[in-house]
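Trying the structure run again after the queue cleared.
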Amino acid sequence: MLVLLLGAGPASYAASGAGAQAGIIFRIDADQIVESSSLAVSTVHRGFAYTTNDSGDGPYVYMLDRQGRLVGTTTLSGVTPVDIEAISAGRDGSLVVADIGDNSGTRDSVVVYKIPQPSTGDHTVTPTALTLHYADGPRNAESMIYDPASGRVLVVSKLIIGAKIYRTPKDAFSRDSAMLRPVADAPMMATDASLLPEHHAIVVRTYLDAVVYHYPGLTSWTDLELPAQEQGESIAWVPGGKKVWVGSEGVDSPVWSVPLPDLSGPLDAASGPRAEAPAVPAPSGGSGPPDGAAMASPPRVHQPSSIVRVGTSAGAVAALVGVVVLLSRPRRNRAGD
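Done. Tokens:
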């Protein structure tokens, strides 16, 4: 049964399993941050995290301490962003900032920027820029992952129907531009994603919950319950831990710590870790240089769970549209069924 709990603020969170151990670790306490659309935990500066505002802000990356206080602002020199939606902190000490938002679906290209993970204090840095083109035309997206081991950038489109995980060639930042090709199906209305390098996995969140995928194979693995948030926008891997942090937009927005499910079980040959997933053929009319053969069909899509807790916000409206679609679909099998 589908339950809708609508309210002016986040609903209370009550869940079974690992999700029941989730808790708020801090609230973002900074006048400059009112629409936190991204989150990354530093792999260089322990105990600190980064975030960015949604569209309308400048080329800024904000650094937060464990109390949610603003302790540094980094300005990307020479950058005029359209809609920064995601960031990704790599084990190599990099921070990739993704200007990939495209609500109207009209941008001919999007851009991601790579910088060293900033320290506390205010800085101005000149980033390495990478222009990205979708093989199947413009797409709105709010989720991006940078994998420093392969040098690939992954982007997850934000759609109710037909969402995909896209991937660049290896060593993408060694060139000025790269093609994003669809390689797997994605959950509807994805709002962020994160690499889980300790588990050979990635996690993609929506307004409702999250899905864990094997990586680099990109077959769905399991669901991850998330706390109810008025507009859940971000998810970030915590180095050295078996948890992720999740955040949302709004003034004084809370950041939760959420335990990951058990990802220590054996991996079958079809799921990973294994050779990277083949690309999904782009529709006719897709453009760009061939940087990998388009081959087999993607694995099955993992849709959000059937309990919906949303607030009255723009994200809630989008989520409710997704609920209508979800109601019309047969209940999916969960991983392991």
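The chain has one domain: 3-327. Worth checking whether this holds up in the mutant runs.
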